[in-house]
Amino acid sequence: MDRAWRGVGTALSFSVFGLGGVLIGLVIAPLIRLTVRDREQRQRLGRRLIQRSFAGFIALMKALGVIEYRIDHLERLRRPGLLVIANHPTLIDTIFLIAHIDDATCIVKGALARNPVTRGPIRLAGYITNASPEEVIDSAAARLRAGQSLVIFPEGTRTPPGGVIRLRRGGANIALRTNTAITPVVIDCQPPTLNKHEPWYRIPARRVRLRLSVSSDLPVICAPTLPSGLAARALTAQLNEHFNNELERLRYDAYA
Question: What's residue 1's pLDDT?
Fold first, then answer.
C-alpha cells in the first residue's frame, strides 16, 4: 500500500513539476521580459523564481511521503560566489542543490535548453549551456566574478548505483582557470532511483532517502610551472579520492 501511494505521489509531483516549467516558460518568463528591461536583473529574478519553485517541489515530495532528505553542513552553501562540485546519483539532486543555494547558476546540456518543459526556465535564469569547453569556462568565470554560485556535475552522466565516482576534468579546469576554491557536495541516494534511463514510474520498494554532505572548501593549489592539463588531471584525481572516500563514509553511516 505504501509503495502504491508513493507511486501516486511521484506522479503528482512530476506532473506539478512539468506544469510549473511550462507555466514559467509560456507565462511568467514573457511577463518578466516585458516588465524588466535590464537583462541581469531579469536573470536574477529568474534564478530566484527557480530556487523557490524547486524548494516548493521538494516540500511537495516530502509532504506526499515520496522522499526524505538530509543536508549536512548546509550553512556552507549559504555563502556567495561558490564553485560547487557534486556527484550526480539521481535526476533530482540538481533540484536539491539549486533550491538551497542563493543566486546559483549551473551548466546544462543543450538538449535541456531545447526541451519545451525546461527551455523557458533555463533561458530566463541565464544558465550556461555546454556549447564548447572554452565558452563554458569563460561564462563560468564571468558568473563567479559577478558573485553568483556555480553548480557543476563533472561526471558527465549519473553516478552508477553502488559504483565508483569518476569525475571528468571540467570542474577542475574551471577551478584552476578562475582560481576558485571548490566546495564539494557528496550525494548518496538510497535506494537508487531516477538513474540513467530509469523511468520515473519505477517506484523503489522503500521510501527514497537522499543525503547531501557539504565538505569544507578545497583550495586550488598547484605548482605554477605545471602545465594546465597536468594540473587539471592532478586536481581531478584529488577530487575523485575525496568523493569516493566521503561516499563510502556516508554509506557506512547509513548501515551502521
Answer: 60
CA distance 154 to 171: 6
Q: How confident is the model at residue 253 (pLDDT cuts 50, 70, 90)?
A: confident
What is the C-alpha to C-alpha distance for residues 180 and 177, in angstroms, rounded to an integer? 8
> Nearest 5°: CA angle at 174, between 169 and 179?
125
**Residue pointed to by grid coordinates 546559483:** 104
Strand-pairing partners, residue 106, are: 151
Q: With DSSP H G I counted as helix, E B as strand and the rest as coil, what are the percentages for the chain, rounded to 5?
A: 50, 15, 35
Residue 225 has pLDDT above 70, yes or no: no
Helix (H, G, I), strand (E, B) or coil at 150: strand
User: Exposed/middle/buried for 43, CB within 10 Å: 0-12, 13-18, 19+?
Assistant: buried
Q: Which residues 6+ apart lie within 8 Å of 44 measured at CB?
A: 103
Distances 201 to 4, 13, 15, 100, 217 between C-alpha atoms, Å: 11, 11, 12, 26, 37
Dist. CA 190–CA 211, nearest whole Å: 9
Q: Measured between alpha carbons, how far is 187 from 207 in angstroms, rounded to an integer?
A: 16
Q: What is the mean pLDDT of residues 125-151?
A: 88
Mean pLDDT along residues 32-50? 93
pLDDT in tens, 163-196: 789 999 999 999 999 999 999 999 999 998 888 8
